[in-house]
Design brief:
One of its GO terms (biological process) is methylation. Helix content is about 25%, strand content about 30%. It has about 250 residues and is α/β, with parallel strands linked by helices. Helix 2 runs parallel beside helix 5. The longest helix has 15 residues. It is globular, with a radius of gyration of 18 Å.
């Protein structure tokens, strides 16, 4: 499974769920509020902009937003919400592709850095963010914490969400730090639809070292976009890295 195969036309058309899931106001609005604050009146660049879930409301706040996105079907879906003049998008890999201009904020939300399946690619993603940022600029990453404490000896899978019509489980390859997320969706019939996506999970300490290699300093880490304390029990984190102002 490569990313271009996963994020095809069918996935792009099913991605947006207005008002629910990751599009629910209680999830989306704190994200946009925090990013608008961190942009500090400058321009923002979103790696893996997708269909514009975050970029569109952020642009509506008056923040100039540019995107980088590998999937052309996702960009086409974005274009139903915002034209090229409003949100320019570069089609390419977030670890290597360059967008014109200089930014005060680069951001990467909803675990997407884990779509890069090697440590080297993830380090290059940090370096690419640094190349785009003005001195003092920030790189923000939203990422889940690997749930390996839930794996007893001999078990390789965890169920991380169950709700009516949906089961989500992850299968782990701990030697390679790889995980495949399996999403089962079903109704009252005997049929279910399965989608899968591969990831390379990253511990917070490893993420911090990647940032140091690219010239960043950790500015803050919270458990969510509203600023909740990050603890040993947190299932995800929002980490803000900053390029020193005098670089």
């Amino acid at each position: 499974m490569n990313q271009e195969e996963i994020w095809d036309t069918d996935a792009a058309q099913r991605y947006d769920t207005p008002g629910t899931g990751m599009f629910a106001p209680e999830i989306l609005m704190p994200t946009v509020d925090r990013l608008a604050e961190l942009a500090g009146g400058g321009a923002a660049l979103e790696f893996a902009i997708g269909t514009g879930r975050v970029a569109v409301p952020l642009a509506e706040r008056g923040v100039p937003v540019t995107g980088i996105e590998l999937s052309r079907p996702m960009v086409r879906q974005l274009r139903t919400r915002a034209d090229e003049a409003t949100i320019p998008v570069i089609v390419g890999d977030m670890a290597t592709s360059m967008a014109p201009g200089e930014f005060t904020l680069v951001y990467l939300v909803y675990n997407t850095i884990s779509n890069l399946l090697t440590q080297a690619e993830q380090v290059e993603c940090f370096r690419n963010a640094a190349r785009h940022l003005a001195p003092g600029g920030r790189f923000v990453i939203e990422l889940w914490v690997p749930e390996l404490r839930k794996l007893p000896p001999g078990q390789t899978a965890t169920v991380w969400q169950t709700e009516p019509g949906y089961i989500g489980l992850d299968t782990y390859d701990v030697l390679r730090q790889h995980v495949v997320s399996h999403h089962f969706r079903f109704d009252d019939t005997r049929q279910a639809r399965l989608t899968r996506s591969p990831h390379r999970y990253i511990w917070p300490a490893e993420l911090d070292l990647m940032a140091q290699l690219a010239g960043f300093e950790l500015e803050s880490r919270h458990a969510d976009w509203s600023g909740a304390e990050f603890t040993a029990e947190s299932r995800s984190h929002v980490s803000v890295y900053r390029i020193p102002p005098n670089r």
